[in-house]
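Workshop exercise sheet. Pairs work together: one partner reads the sequence aloud, the other fills in the structure field after running the prediction. Swap roles for the next sheet.
Pair: D.N. / O.F.
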Amino acid sequence: MRKYWNIAGGLRPLEEPTSNSWIQVTCPSAEDCQYLENEIKIPDYFLNDIADIEERSRYEIDEGWYLIILRIPYAKEIPSRTPFTTIPLGIIIKNSLIITVCNFETDMMNDFLIHQQRRGVGIADPPEMVFRLFLSSAVWYLKRLKQISTLIEQYKRSLDHNIDNVDLINFSRLQDSLTYFVTSIRGNETLLSKLKFRLPIDELDADLIEDVNIEMNQARETTSIYSNILDSTMDTYANIINNNMSQVMRTLTGISLILMVPTLITSAFGMNLVNSMENDWWGFGLVVIVSIIITVAFYWFFRSRKFL
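Structure field:
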């Protein structure tokens, strides 16, 4: 799906691309790819690199075309092993033409459009557009991290009532998401530091870059904090599970020892051996009473030692 925007006038929609315009391509079809390659004349391997879900944050220059790949946060609509991940957003620039290509429909790009249209100021040049997309990605990392924080508290409350494997698995999945986040944020920071010396920037862009650095630094630190919280929480619940298992095994061992006492006594007196009580009417009762007394004594002993 292609959309055309005039970036100089507060992102007004266009019928056809012109100078100083933005071509937004989302979930590109074969027709969109042919249009970009044949009509716009961008290098064909640019689209292949952007389509690679594992493509790292980087930039490349080919015959005046700039390819910038930015990793942005993405919330998966279909339940999977990682509820949040990162995906590549391709930014292609030549002169005053800007092309963004993303193989997924994302909340970030929709929010970026709404925010820029609400500003109503427009975008001065392609470098400003690039840095504003960097800023938007950093802001959306923070938004996704807030959602992860909410999920962590939800799973904690559930585990406080009942330690369930499902909640522990969910913790592990969030940990995977945070790993993707911190890796992508660091890659974006490295890419930003390189672009500052490759793109023509003015005083406004310098202020914008400073804002991007602040937001990215906050996103990276917040990701590290939540990752440490998850590690600590999982270690805590693992220790709780081990402690509960030890308590259960100790209790079962104590019960086995208590039940062993009457078993040994009745087994000994039940053998065909002469014990001077086999002909007395009170012999059976005495054995039962002795068994009960010793069993109660063992129970009291284990209870006093908190084995039961």
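Discussion prompt: DSSP finds seven helices and seven strands in the chain. What would you look at next?
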